[in-house]
Design goal:
By secondary structure, the chain is of the alpha/beta class. It contains 8 helices and 5 strands, in the order βααβαβααβαβαα. Helix content is about 50%, strand content about 10%.
Length: about 210
Amino acid sequence: MMNKRIVFIGDSITEWGKEQGLDNIGTGYVKYIYDYLLVSDPQDFPEIINCGIGGDRITDLANRWQQDVVDLQPDILSISVGINDVWRQLDEPEIEQVMPEKFELIYRELLLKTLKETNATIIIMEPTVIGEEIKSEGNKKLQAYVQIIAKLATEFNLIVVPTHQAFLTYLQANNEHELTIDGVHMNDVGNLLMAKTWLETYNKLNA
């Protein structure tokens, strides 16, 4: 029997370290998940493909969805997107923006395409944070995107990885250990929290 194929698609948080990591897995949360699944069941270890690309918004994912999702025919597809859709509003306000309505429209189209053209089980991740201050402008803007993901998950009966909530819970504890190197990109602690939250959700699928 063929081992399962898990495809992770997203932005730089997903891509992190691919140029230096083993088998293009990267050195971020995808690598933590890879290692955990390997040691948990080395005889039934899934094929893991990291399709993260730095800077991507939902519009960029749409442009490569056929190649990086449909053509790969994953058994499990994990989607992480939304950070750059908000961050670009803050650091590049002059470019065309992906506002919540457009984000929802494109995300829904991608989910429909995936369900129609693959047999993948879809896991959608909440975007994490933009700044480790809970009430930052980025985190306030992010709320609409988190809510859209929850709405789509209900509409399509999909599994949601509550990464945003996990980060807020951690930050609310006023822990002295930071999660990111710049407010967005993860350090080891942030990557581990993402992986832990993903795996807790994934293991419910297989319970």
